[in-house]
């Protein structure tokens, strides 16, 4: 290649370098201006984001129980999903259908059973969905999502005690339910409002008995009591009246206008088939009647006299002791 050709190329390269060098400060300044503008935009965006964050409501993190994270065994919980530690107490109304709940979380294929426990024995009531007791009043049902509910129909007084919901882990996990029975208070009283167990009448006299039922709690609904004689329906000549009692008491009155010897027997006042009280009526005549009344009145007189003497003795003792102390 000849000298003039090299010379022309060299001049072109030199000119290009000169142009680049001459334009470099201007391009550099333009790049810096773009970076400055971008930084202002980023700063403005961060400020706006901070303002939005300040106006947002606080973040709520759900409460996690420690054992849910670290312990994967079954555990008991209440209707609100809170863990149950210890026993629980349940009051059941006499004659009603009762439900005992056992909510088991994290069951993982384990079996749930209900037992009734006493100091000397324990009986298996249910296992899973199967009932293992001959008493048809007991049943079990699964309520979604985790409730193994034990039902007891027609609650009786003897149903009180300790019921255990148990999961077959090792060792077994148990939820203890202490059951008490709420029964109405039922009494048979006479005209003077004295509670009766035995009563003597003369033939031809009137018999009047009053049955008073007080519910176990103010909101419970109790049916009217039913009168029976010797566990059978009352004779036609025996009248029963329903009376408005004080507060929430239910009052029924039995009345016989002219008593006969055949009216003697056991008279019961019952609320359904679960709560009953009884009085024995004796209809007598002649000297036997007088003798019975004399003995009964003498016993009452002697009892009252003995009580009076005891009160007097106690008063004298207290008076003497106070005088001695002074």
From TrEMBL:
Span of domain Ig-like: 74-177, 184-280
GO cellular component assignments: neuron projection membrane
SUPFAM superfamilies the UniProt entry points to: Immunoglobulin
Lineage, broadest ranks: Eukaryota, Metazoa, Ecdysozoa, Arthropoda, Hexapoda
Biological processes annotated in GO: synapse organization
Stored CDD domains: Ig (cd00096)
UniProt superkingdom: Eukaryota
InterPro entries reported in the protein's UniProt record: Ig-like_dom, Ig-like_dom_sf, Ig-like_fold, Ig_I-set, Ig_sub, Ig_sub2, Ig_V-set, Zig-8
Name listed for the protein in its UniProt record: LACH protein
One Pfam family matching this protein: V-set
Keywords: Membrane, Transmembrane, Transmembrane helix
Transmembrane segments: 6-24
